[in-house]
Amino acid sequence: MIVVPLDKALPDNEIESSIIRAEAEAVIFDKKYLEFFQDIKSNSNCKLKHFICMDLENLDDSILSLPNLMLQGKELIKNGDTKYDDVKINENGMSIMLFTSGTTSMAKIVMLSQANICANIYSTGCIAKVTKEDTFLSFLPLHHTYESTTTFLYGLYSGITIAFCDGLRYVSQNLKEYKVTGFVCVPLILEAMYKKIKKGIKDKHLQIPFAILTAISNFLLLFGIDVRRKFFKSIIDELGRSFKTCYLWCCTNG
Questions:
Q1: Which of 179, 116, 171 is nearest to 148 (CA)?
Q2: Measured between alpha carbons, how far is 175 from 180 in angstroms, rounded to an integer?
Q3: Beta-bridge mates of residue 137
């Protein structure tokens, strides 16, 4: 099948437009969107045939229950059905359609194959060294390839623990309480954290001591001596003592 992940925070009209443009034939949703998808069925341009609700029992024949479908699937497997195991995968065929953020115009559709995604996971492993001892915080949109590949899929591939953020305002709190060792982010997130740290230093009138310790620390690093965790203990404690790595997404206009 081809999957089409959508942002649940999109306005209803954009969700409907995306479903129509993708020519989706099935949709999985939670009960909050039940009324919306019941209404969308009347749109003649919509090709949806299967409506699957994640957290409700069957309401009628037109709305299916995901838990019930899973139970039916387990029963089929128990009775010897091997359709799922016998699926032939075309690694170079389109497997996923993703919508861009659409900040400058209508969102564009990106088509990826399983080979594309696996190549990204492998490439990430060549530059990012994480182990099963690591815990990463996930707070970027999972319906975009960046977070889904570099945190979610690469995380599963590497055996790390993934903690899901309670919201952007809780990033600092989550870093400490989940003992996070790293996360994937965009530059804007780090800029916000940097400004907050600088403000804290200024409010406590520690600009001069901070500048002196920074200079000493940078000098010692030239000789392979790293005292940053001792010199800047109070700042690191705000991020969480376990934190050690972040990965940035950089894009070009080329």
A1: 116
A2: 5
A3: 163, 183
Residue of 137, 165, 167, 166 lying closest to 152 (CA atoms): 137
d(CA 143, CA 157): 18
Burial of 60 (0-12, 13-18, 19+ CB in 10 A): exposed
φ/ψ bin of 102: left (φ > 0), alpha (ψ from -120 to 50), beta (otherwise): left
Contact present, 63 and 36 (Cβ < 8 Å): no
**Domain map of the chain by residue range?**
1-87, 115-248
Cβ-defined contacts of 184-188 (< 8 Å, 24+): 184/136, 184/138, 184/140, 184/146, 184/147, 184/150, 184/151, 184/246, 184/247, 184/249, 185/139, 185/140, 185/246, 185/247, 185/248, 185/249, 186/140, 186/248, 186/249, 187/248, 187/249, 187/250
Helix (H, G, I), strand (E, B), or coil: what is residue 37? helix
Q: Among residues 140, 139, 148, 110, which one has the least CA distance to residue 18?
A: 110
CATH number 3.40.120 given to 115-248: no
Residue found under tokens 């959508």 = 6
User: What does the alpha-carbon distance between residue 77 and residue 173 come to, in Å, rounded to a whole number?
Assistant: 44
Instruction: Give, for all 254 residues of the chain, the pLDDT tens digit.
Output: 899 999 888 888 889 989 999 999 999 998 888 888 888 878 888 899 999 999 877 666 678 999 999 999 999 999 999 998 998 989 999 999 988 876 667 788 889 999 999 999 998 888 878 888 899 999 888 888 888 888 999 999 999 999 999 887 888 888 888 888 888 887 877 787 778 778 877 887 878 888 888 888 888 888 888 887 777 777 666 665 566 665 555 444 43
Residue linked to tokens 């109070």: 234
Query: H or E stretch including 29?
Result: strand 26-29
